[in-house]
Write a structure and sequence with these properties.
Four Helix Bundle (Hemerythrin (Met), subunit A); 2 domains; binds heme C; about 75% helix; mainly alpha; single chain; globular
Length: about 170
């Protein structure tokens, strides 16, 4: 067989395969019966189920907790990871999908970053602890401004991640 004909055949096969694959996906969604309606209605439905402050703050809370114990146990790499992830959750998720709190979120980020990352880089726990206390207050300033002042953050008492395995 001519090489060009063979290549053409492979391309057609790929395109048809992809089409069958995507129809299959659409059919599965329709069969599950929730992602229905016009394209706009479907997008609205998808947008409305993006995780909001309630869910993501629990995640931030865990990372805040483990940030402290990563530093306390000298796992500075894991501490940096926790501080980075807190920033990512706020910047790349919440500030995108829930913009009405962005003014406070920006204030928080400006007051906390790179301050906390700089403290981690120094790898000295007493200095880190001071920066962590500032971070805790910055978190709570947003809670006060957003009228959830009952979310008072305590100084962490025990790690949660299996990486730290019960470090106190
Ligand atoms: C931009 C504002 C803002 C910032 C900054 C912020 N929070 Fe929050 N946080 C909230 C709001 C609003 C809620 C209430 C959640 C809701 O509305 O469902 C909340 C709730 C929480 C909760 C309770 C979650 C639950 O439902 O159990 C924790 C824990 C928490 N925040 C931790 C933190 C930590 C730790 C930081 C800092 C590293 C922080 N927050 C920074 C706005 C913020």
């Amino acid at each position: 067989m001519n090489k060009k004909v063979l290549l053409f055949g492979i391309c057609i096969g790929l395109v048809v395969g992809l089409m069958i694959g995507s129809f299959g996906t659409i059919a599965v969604n329709a069969a599950n019966g929730w992602l229905t309606g016009s394209v706009e209605e479907k997008l609205d439905k998808l947008a409305s189920i993006q995780p909001g402050y309630g869910i993501m703050m629990q995640q931030i809370g865990l990372r805040y907790n483990d940030l402290y114990f990563s530093a306390k146990s000298g796992n500075w790499g894991f501490a940096e990871h926790q501080a980075d992830e807190i920033q990512v959750i706020l910047k790349d998720i919440l500030m995108v999908t829930k913009p009405k709190r962005n003014e406070d979120a920006k204030k928080f980020l400006a007051a906390s970053y790179p301050m906390i990352l700089d403290a981690i880089k120094k790898e000295k726990f007493p200095e880190f602890e001071k920066a962590f206390e500032t971070l805790r207050n910055n978190c709570m300033n947003c809670h006060i401004s957003q009228k959830v002042e009952f979310v008072k953050l305590k100084k962490p008492v025990m790690s949660a991640s299996p990486v730290l395995a019960g470090v106190k």
